[in-house]
Amino acid sequence: MLNHTNVYWIRNRVLKKLKVLLVEDEEKLSSLLKNAIGEYFYSFHIAKDGEQGIEMFQRIAPDILITDIMMPKRTGLEMAKEIKKTHPHIPIIVLSAFSETEKFLGAIDIGVNKYFIKPFDPEELLTYIIQISQGFETTSVELAGGFLFDKTKKALYKEGRYIALTKTQKNFIQFMLQEHKENTPLIDADAIKTALWPKEDVSDEKVRTFIRRLREKTSKDLLKNIRGQGYALGIK
Known about the structure:
The chain is an alpha/beta fold.
């Protein structure tokens, strides 16, 4: 049972790390939901149909998907089925004006987590998201410069926008986070070489080039260069 203290804490600590994608062709409803609950999340994106929903899902990698059923181009259930193939654990919440048995059965077959019949209270939707969000508490880390790193997905975001990184760049951020956790936030070039290229004879120049390119993609605030000592990841 959620008491007021728990709800307040979750809204302000956990939900602020979550990215939500709402796929809804009714503009009034999507605007209503964004205005009513969107501020609680790290980002709240809206797509207008199933095809746009899949494209946006691939681009922003949301933590929670909310979708209508009947939409142009591709239905919510068709979209959800497609997404579940590659992201089987993504929580999916379905909104629908229909209550026919086959719609419920179709949603259950796909693995939808919750079904809301329109009209519904946005507070009910938020309460349900709070309940399931408690399992997301430690997946994301807030970094300097407005960045957010999802440790589970090894994905970097800024203000809800996905930042495309190479595999080595993702591993580097993960490595720096682990070192910070173990109270060694300042990492020298030799430690970076060992962590990222353990079987290669890597020059200092390669490390400097790697760091420079990562900072160009992100920000100098995210990765700080302590002259003559090493590098530190900016963590809020």
